[in-house]
Amino acid sequence: MKVKAKILDDKDLNRTIVRLAHQIVDKNKGAENICIIGMRTRGEYIAKRIANEINRIENINLEVGVLDTTLYRDDYRQRLRMPKVQVTNIPFAIDEKNIILVDDVLYTGRTVRAAMDAIMDFGRPNSIQLVVLIDRGHRELPIQPDIVGKSIITSIGEEVRVKLIEVDGVDEVLLIDVNEE
After folding, report:
1. Radius of gyration (Cα) for the chain, nearest Å?
2. Looking at the whole model, is its pTM more than 0.85?
């Protein structure tokens, strides 16, 4: 794998999480009516970090859920291999809540569309706000984030890899040349 650039190191990532938390609180005029749902896998951990920061800022205990979109993907039936379906855990009512949907990288928008379909199966929230750590462009669907940690310009032959200590043992975001792997 050829690393073209380090987009965020551990300190940058932590500062970005803190900034995202503050932006969420500002946008929602507090945290009283919000719930956070992280998209598997790395969105889950980013969501938990954001929730911890909001809890610290607002002295509130936010509810955090985890969403697996595998069965909602529009390419689910087109895949040749068996998809790995993981657990969705949203242990709270979402009706009339402002849902903060968190993902690590926004690319085509297809995973976000699938996530919105899945959320609507749980109830009817007041709103769904999309928060992403990295927006790399190249949308195929008209989906835009409400709050972005960092926007970068990428080519189709590149990939953004978010590495988190909870999964990968390190906190960093890398730009990878997939043609060089």
Report:
1. 16
2. yes
